[in-house]
Amino acid sequence: MLEHLKRLGGDSLLFALMNVGTKLIAFLMLPIYTSYLGAEQLGVLENVDAFTSMLTFIVIFGTDSALAFFYFDTKDKLEKEKYVRNVLMFRIMVASVLLLLAIFTGNFISKLIFGVPGYGVIVQIALVVLFLESVITLVLTYFRYEFLSKKVVVYTVSRLGTVAILSYLFLRYMNAEVSVIFYARIIGAISILVLLFPYIKRFFTFKIDFPLLKEILIYAAPLVPASIAFWVISSSNRFFLSQYDSLAHVGVYGVAVKFATVITLLTSSVQMAWRPYSMSIKDRSDAKTVFANIYLLVLIIGMFGLLGIATFIPYILHWMIPKVEFHSASKYIAVLSLGTFLNFYYLIISVGLFITKKTNPISIYFGIAAIISICLNIVLIPNFSLWGATLAVVLSYLFACIAIFIKSQKVYHVPVSIFNLVVVFISGVLSLLSIVYIQEYTNLNGAYTILSWLFYFGMIVIIYLNVKRVGAKK
């Protein structure tokens, strides 16, 4: 038993470090990209990445989760490899079809996702990268299932590190255009594929077991809509900005999003720990009281963190990114960070759905949130530009959070005060917005933001006294 726990702990630590490392690499590339690319070129990069991330869901099509189930459901090694082989061929076929479509309809796709023709070649190059990465991802998945965690970390970090170095060198010494970034990604992917060639050769085949593949896809298909819904909420607004506004504003928005998602370096670790912790205490007599306290505490701490982001992020952004054309991104970072926090917070307040094994509503509510997001983008972006895109994200996540919380409370009631949660959230949002307003839209001294902090702190004191009073009555 101890050996299994040590392996789980070691693997979890390795993957956590890998997760943090890859996100840091991506974030630290932002000053380099903004140094060599203008806002419009960065907007092109944002749109291509958003487009290919959506296509990635189509290529994978939930087969990662399906493969995990069937791989560990069978004990026969040859049967395990047969599942891997068929998933690999499925992904190669889908990625190949998408690449062919891009070759023949490049200008149409360019008009669709950029609002203007002329970027079809970049889309095609990006889909070559997608094709190569679909193979790499499958082999690394196989490594994970064989508990070869060190190989996963080494290959993943090596590829991203190679791409980062080559992107910098190409931008500096070759051409300051977005296309060279994708050339760097192709070279990085090919270099890893060469190292993985023995495994690729082992799993590659022209013979597909269609009954087995059908079995995999039947399991996988229901998982796809939720993934697409998340993508719609977080990424589709870039295309609306391209159509209704400009690619330059997409670039500015992309910078804001990169800063806003840095908080996932903290929330992801809590997220990893929360599920096993919540499941481990669910049978305790005081479990619901513990959950209630955590609901409130996480929200209070999260809002404090968001106030810190709102206060200091303009100075950090101006220091990291000297180009003035990107400085307006600081207006939106704190509010976008609120959206990122809500996307994490729903996992905390949905504990009842996981305990009772009634998780289907999560997919349903995020599907509705995706539809809301599209409607908000159509209505808000033409009138409010980047603020419209920002509000569409936050309001969509807020709807999902509220709906999931209400449903979770119905199946597993946690005795948390709704009044306290609402007061903490509203006072935090008001304080956050007031900080943004003072720093970005007035000539007031930044010291005035202390008033926003004092207001929020005062509301937390009131909440604390209220909780203490209610506890004393009990």
TrEMBL record:
It is a multi-pass membrane protein. The keyword Membrane applies. The keyword Flavoprotein does not apply. GO terms for cellular component: plasma membrane. The chain crosses the membrane at residues 12-33, 53-72, 92-113, 119-140, 152-174, 180-200, 212-233, 253-274, 294-321, 333-355, 362-380, 386-406, 418-438, 450-467. InterPro entries: Poly_Biosynth_Transport, Polysacc_synth. Keywords: Cell membrane, Membrane, Transmembrane, Transmembrane helix. It comes from the Bacteria. It is found in: Cell membrane. This is Oligosaccharide flippase family protein. It comes from Lederbergia citri.
